[in-house]
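Example S7 (structure tokens).
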């Protein structure tokens, strides 16, 4: 199978330590495979059914699913000002909305310095201090700047509105209903069984990644999961299983700036692959992780790839593997 050979080569040739892949077509598993090692020292292979990875920014679609429910219930308005929910947030030169935060058009800055690998046990509320005193990068609605801090703010809004911790709300309203039993926040020192070791790559090979604490940015990049769980999320969207599935179109439609698409909806990338196939999903890159998640609505296909290494630089290889998947799966009527 060409696709398997392409993925096997990545681990065999030392491009990455380990990787899990899952592909669904019409809800049926077309590929579920592990490649390489979940832990190098013990030579533990990746088990696609149970190896747990950092999913990095695939956390955003998880958080967006919680936001969709609160919007559907009328508890949050997408075009409401942030300050309706967080009146104590430091005032900026412009007002901005929930929708602008979710679409990365609010002007909130991205990481600087060592913030990408921050190792502080901040709560979500405490995490606001990292960026709350900085000015906006542009007038909201006039630009696009991808970042995770937007979702720190949104997760704090969801805590205020729901009256419970964000992690608990997501568990109750998203993960449990969808059967995502292997998905959870990463709590340093309390990793689930079968969690892959997190690596970075240098010229001499792979080394264990520096410790990080992602709790404050759980909504933007702090979840752990398996390929099977993320595929469940994709399939729920593809088949309209969500309670407020009528709102999906709004979340899965690319925003535009000056008439040009940003290729980003509300917590979801909305784009085309190298062969012109439309998809929505997300990619992620964080300390010790790279992730890819795509839902192809026309082909009725879900693809999930999780890697236990920071920025392995294998995007083109993965794209080739995805193209091979489409060459090998049965054509759909």
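Recovered sequence:
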């Amino acid at each position: 199978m060409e696709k398997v050979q392409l993925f096997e080569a990545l681990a065999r040739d030392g491009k990455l330590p380990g990787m899990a892949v899952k592909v669904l077509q019409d809800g049926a598993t077309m590929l579920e495979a592990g490649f390489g090692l979940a832990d190098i020292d013990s030579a533990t292979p990746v088990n696609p059914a149970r190896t747990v990875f950092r999913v990095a920014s695939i956390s955003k679609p998880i958080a967006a699913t919680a936001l969709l429910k609160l919007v559907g219930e009328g508890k949050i308005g997408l075009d409401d000002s942030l300050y309706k929910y967080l009146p104590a947030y430091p005032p900026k030169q412009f007002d901005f909305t929930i929708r602008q935060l979710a679409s990365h058009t609010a002007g909130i800055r991205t990481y600087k310095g060592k913030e990408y690998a921050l190792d502080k046990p901040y709560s979500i509320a405490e995490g606001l201090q990292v960026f709350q005193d900085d000015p906006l990068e542009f007038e909201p609605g006039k630009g696009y700047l991808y970042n995770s801090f937007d979702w720190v703010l949104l997760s704090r809004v969801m805590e205020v509105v729901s009256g419970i911790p964000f992690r608990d709300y997501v568990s109750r309203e998203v993960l449990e209903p969808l059967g995502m039993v292997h998905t959870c926040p990463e709590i340093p020192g309390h990793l689930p069984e079968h969690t892959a070791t997190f690596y970075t790559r240098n010229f001499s090979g792979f080394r264990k990644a520096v410790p990080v604490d992602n709790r404050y940015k759980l909504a933007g990049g702090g979840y752990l999961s398996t390929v099977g769980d993320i595929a469940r999320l994709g399939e729920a969207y593809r088949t309209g299983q969500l309670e407020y599935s009528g709102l999906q179109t709004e979340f899965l439609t690319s925003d535009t700036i000056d008439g040009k698409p940003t290729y980003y909806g509300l917590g979801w990338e909305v784009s085309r692959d190298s062969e012109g196939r439309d998809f929505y999903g997300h990619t992620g890159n964080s300390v010790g992780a790279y992730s890819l998640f795509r839902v192809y609505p026309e082909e009725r296909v879900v693809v999930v790839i999780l890697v236990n290494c920071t920025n392995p630089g294998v995007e083109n290889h993965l794209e080739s593997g995805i193209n091979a998947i489409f060459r090998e799966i049965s054509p759909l009527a």
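Notes on this example. The longest helix spans residues 59-72.
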